[in-house]
Amino acid sequence: MKWKIPENSIFATLLRQSWWVSALAALATFVVVQNFMAWGYALFATLPFTVIALMVAWKQVFGPDGARVEKTLEKIRNMSWEDFAQALERGYRAGGYTVRRVDGVADFELEKLGYLTLVCARRWKAARTGTEPLRELAVAGEKREARECQYAVAGELTEQARAFAKQKGVKLVEGAELARLVRG
Predict the structure, then answer these.
(1) How far is Cα 144 from Cα 138, in angstroms, rounded to an integer?
(2) pTM of structure
């Protein structure tokens, strides 16, 4: 079973903010709860906010910075298809997937824990991508009963394509995630 935090929950929102926002939420929670309960309970109530603050701080300090991601994406855009495909295969295998190349709409079939994921990556260099390749991937995923469909792209996606991907549950592998996957 795949667990996902709702996009508009307080925790998902805090994960997108700077670390000090979560730290401030932890402090405020401690002050409020401590007025009604013992300080031990107040400390316990701050735990989710403290964990999020530490996660975000770790990501901000040790995660890829914008310049490094952009440099890696530029290298990706200059790769040949074969080099890019091999790099993706290595990245997915490192993530515990069994990878198989396929012909058709999807370029890869990934299997992990008995679940099938289809990945379309052939148009990774496209300067701007619309909804059509995402629509084809979603249809192929339904036919194959894939648990997830992923679309790897180093270029831009139109707003309509992003909305379509969100609506159909197609995961977009782009930016820092694509850079991390290809770098291994």
Answers:
(1) 10
(2) 0.67
- Domains parsed from the chain with CATH numbers: 10-62 (no CATH), 66-183 (3.40.1350.10)
| Residue positions counted in the chain | 184
Q: How far apart are CA 158 and CA 15, in angstroms?
A: 25
pLDDT bin (cut points 50, 70, 90) of residue 152 is very high
CB 154 within 8 A of CB 122: no
Q: CA-to-CA distance for 11 and 8, rounded, in angstroms?
A: 8
pLDDT in tens, 24-83: 999 999 999 999 999 899 999 999 999 999 998 888 777 666 777 888 888 988 999 999
Query: Do the beta carbons of residue 132 and residue 152 sit within 8 Å?
Result: no
What angle is formed at CA 111 by the lines to CA 12 and CA 84, rounded to 5 degrees?
A: 80
